[in-house]
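pls design
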C-alpha cells in the first residue's frame, strides 16, 4: 500500500513531476560529465606504469639532454631498458589540428610500452622506414589517416616542411591507453637537424627507463641523477606518474574550478527539489491530518514524503546516468585529441546515483518533519 501511495503522489501533478525529473536529469548529467572531464585530466597519470622512470633536464623540460647520457643511464644498476623521445610539435595543415607528436628511439621506445598494440608486420614496416610514422587509432579515425598516407607537418620546434608516411596504426590494450599520438623516428629528425642546424643535433627531450621492481624506483632515480650532478645538463628522474602529475599541476586551478562547479550544480538542484517537495507537502496538509486521524503514525507520513522525494530523485539520477555515456561520447568526438582518453568510470556513475539519493533525502527532510509534527486539528483546519 505504501508504494502505491508514493507512486500516486508522485504522479498527481504530472507536469510538475516531469519538470522536476528533467531538472534532476540535467543536474546529474552535468555532474557526471564534469567528473569525467576531471578523470580525463588525470588519465595519463593513472595509466602510468610504476616501473617506468622519466629522466629530463633538471632546469626545465624545455632544455634538452645530450644523447651521450643513454649509455650511462642504461648501465645504472636496476635499469632494464632505455628509450628516448623528443616532442616534435609540428602543425598539420592548420594550427587547430593539434595532436601529440613524438620523435622516438624506435624499437627501444616501443618495447617500453607494450600497451600499444600493432600488427607485427606493420611494426617492422615502421621500424625500417626512417620517414615512417606510427599513428594511434583515435587519431587515425579523427583525420582519416590510413596506412600508406603521407602526413605533411610544418615544423615549429624543428623548422621546415616535413613529410611522414603512415606505416602502422596502433590500438590500445586497455580503454585508458592513449591512441591519439603520432610517433616518428628520432634518427631521421636528428640527421636533418645536424645538417640544417648543427647545434641542435644529438639532443634528447626525455629518457624513458624501465626497472624490474617498483619499490626500487626512488633509489634508481637518485643513482641516475647522481651521475650527472654538477654537469652542464643536470637531470631530474621521477616515476612516469609523477612526471604526468607535473603537467596536471599546471592546470590545478582549472581542475579545482570544475570540482566547485559540479558541487554547485548539485546544491542548486537540491534547493529546487526541496522547494518542490515543500510545495507538495503544503498542498497535502489536510490529507496528512486525516491519515493521522485514521491511526497512521508520524513515521508513516515521513515515509510517504521521503519515498516520493527519493523516487523522483532516483528517476532523474537513473536517466542522467544513462545519458552520460552518449553525452561523453559526443563530447569526446567534439574535443578531438584534446582529451586522449575520455571514458566514463563506473565510480562516476556511482557518484551520480549517490548525489541523486542525497538530493532526494535532503529535499524530503523538512517537509517530512513538518508533516510528522502537525496536529490533527491544525491540519483539518487548513481545508479550503
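designed seq:
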Amino acid at each position: 500500500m505504501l508504494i502505491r501511495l508514493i507512486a500516486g503522489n508522485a504522479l498527481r501533478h504530472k507536469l510538475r513531476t516531469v519538470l522536476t525529473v528533467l531538472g534532476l536529469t540535467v543536474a546529474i548529467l552535468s555532474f557526471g560529465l564534469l567528473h569525467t572531464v576531471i578523470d580525463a585530466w588525470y588519465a595519463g597519470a593513472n595509466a602510468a606504469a610504476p616501473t617506468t622512470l622519466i629522466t629530463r633536464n633538471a632546469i626545465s623540460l624545455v632544455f634538452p639532454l645530450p644523447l651521450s647520457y643513454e649509455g650511462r643511464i642504461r648501465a645504472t644498476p636496476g635499469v632494464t631498458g632505455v628509450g628516448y623521445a623528443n616532442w616534435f610539435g609540428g602543425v598539420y595543415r592548420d594550427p587547430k589540428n593539434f595532436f601529440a607528436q613524438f620523435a622516438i628511439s624506435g624499437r627501444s621506445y616501443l618495447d617500453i610500452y607494450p600497451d600499444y598494440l600493432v600488427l607485427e608486420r606493420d611494426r617492422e614496416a615502421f621500424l625500417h622506414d626512417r620517414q615512417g610514422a606510427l599513428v594511434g587509432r583515435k587519431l587515425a579515425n579523427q583525420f582519416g589517416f590510413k596506412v600508406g598516407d603521407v602526413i605533411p607537418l610544418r615544423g615549429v620546434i624543428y623548422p621546415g616542411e616535413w613529410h611522414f608516411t603512415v606505416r602502422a596504426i596502433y590500438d590500445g590494450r586497455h580503454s585508458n591507453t592513449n591512441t591519439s599520438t603520432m610517433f616518428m623516428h628520432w634518427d631521421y629528425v636528428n640527421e636533418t637537424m645536424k645538417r640544417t642546424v648543427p647545434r641542435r643535433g644529438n639532443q634528447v627531450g626525455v629518457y624513458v627507463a624501465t626497472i624490474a621492481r617498483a619499490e626500487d624506483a626512488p633509489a634508481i632515480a637518485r643513482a641516475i641523477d647522481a651521475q650527472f650532478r654538477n654537469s652542464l645538463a643536470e637531470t631530474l628522474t621521477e616515476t612516469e606518474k609523477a612526471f604526468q602529475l607535473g603537467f596536471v599541476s599546471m592546470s590545478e586551478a582549472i581542475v579545482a574550478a570544475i570540482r566547485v562547479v559540479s558541487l554547485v550544480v548539485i546544491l542548486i538542484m537540491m534547493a529546487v527539489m526541496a522547494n518542490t517537495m515543500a510545495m507538495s507537502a503544503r498542498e497535502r496538509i489536510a490529507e496528512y491530518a486525516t491519515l493521522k486521524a485514521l491511526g497512521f503514525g508520524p513515521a508513516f507520513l515521513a515515509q510517504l514524503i521521503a519515498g516520493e522525494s527519493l523516487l523522483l530523485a532516483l528517476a532523474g539520477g537513473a536517466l542522467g546516468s544513462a545519458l552520460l555515456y552518449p553525452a561523453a561520447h559526443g563530447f569526446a568526438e567534439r574535443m578531438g585529441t584534446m582529451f586522449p582518453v575520455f571514458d566514463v568510470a563506473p565510480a562516476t556513475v556511482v557518484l551520480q546515483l549517490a548525489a541523486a539519493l542525497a538530493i532526494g533525502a535532503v529535499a524530503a527532510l523538512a517537509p517530512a518533519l513538518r508533516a510528522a509534527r502537525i496536529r490533527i486539528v491544525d491540519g483539518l483546519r487548513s481545508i479550503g
